[in-house]
Amino acid sequence: MGEFSTTGVSPLWEVVALDQFCPPEKTQASQWRRRWRSASKWLIGKKTSEQQVKEEHELRSLPEIRLAHLVPPVDWAPAASMLAQALDAQDAPVTFFITPPHGGHASVVTHWAKQHNAVCVEPPTLSELAKGDTQWIAHCVHQKSWVVPALERHFLRHTQGIQSIREFLERALSGRLGHGVIGCDSWTYAYLQQVIGIDGAPVFTLQSMQGEQLTRYFSNISASDGQYPSVYSTRTGKQILPALETKRHQAAHKELQRLAAHCRGHLGIAWHYWHERLREPSSGETQALWLVDALADAELPADTGDIATLVLHALLIHGGLDDQSLGEVLPFSHHEALNARLALQRKGIVSSWEGRWQIAPLSYASVRQLLESRNYLVDSL
Known about the structure:
The chain has helices at residues 27-44, 64-70, 77-88, 105-115, 126-130, 163-173, 186-195, 211-222, 254-262, 267-277, 306-318, 323-328, 334-346, 364-373; strands at 15-17, 59-61, 94-99, 119-120, 145-148, 179-185, 203-206, 231-233, 239-241, 278-281, 289-291, 350-353, 356-359. By secondary structure, it is an alpha/beta fold. Residues 1-7, 42-49 and 244-249 have low confidence and may be disordered.
């Protein structure tokens, strides 16, 4: 597999302390564009709000086999290696590694556990959480080292459901459970920081990726026989990925910087855009690929109701929930919660994964922006 030269460029993978996380440049410009597009759709209609060089009806989805080759799942092992280097300098009883939804924290921490023979603590069932069961904490006792890959799976936001995680964190942070590494969704971390307080433990995350890094990443994973596929933007008609040897060292096209800003530099979110919006010409006359305007999907209307907003926030701070648990953590009836979830599902804002409803990857940026604009508790990433 061919690769870009890494001389004088930023590393793809960098684990940093949480307070060193820095979103990509042009984030504000990206948000302005999003607000302008929303206003344009309301004033003059969706189809004419932004001219497209290539219309989506002229393109078709890639065959699954080819798509799997061009956009394989993210390999989080390099991030685990970077996390190992960061942990080597730590002697605290507990260290957190957090990422936003779809950001890979559970995979990274699990990789690290396998490399260091640490015991992975399985989460309790939702019924056990509802009863405040604390038996799962015993798995951390008398272990040389342990990991909790996804802390968001260990609590529910109600009196009984938060009991076990409160006890676990109090014991872990005091050193009574030995040494452990906790993977945690950034929204869960923000919530637990507010309601329990987890100051004092080191917290790491992945540094954001700029457009140049996304260019290298997507080119490297899709390279075949040393040749990069040509990828163009349906919005501008300009090339996004370099295809020729002489262009491998060129600066990243601004389209991928635009994507990086929209995703706040999170590879997991950017990967979903790339995977879901890559197309080929319907005619099949050329090998060139097209990226459908990736930032126009599943935007939330400004008049999204309070119930729907509370549902979205609950799903984020829990890393996803099933319908039964969703009803238990909201201040209204199960019927109202289900109706709101169904409406969000029909709009493509939420989707099902492993039996839980969660914010769809392409909707995440818009949902986060909505919650922030309404002064909800949001994550720091």
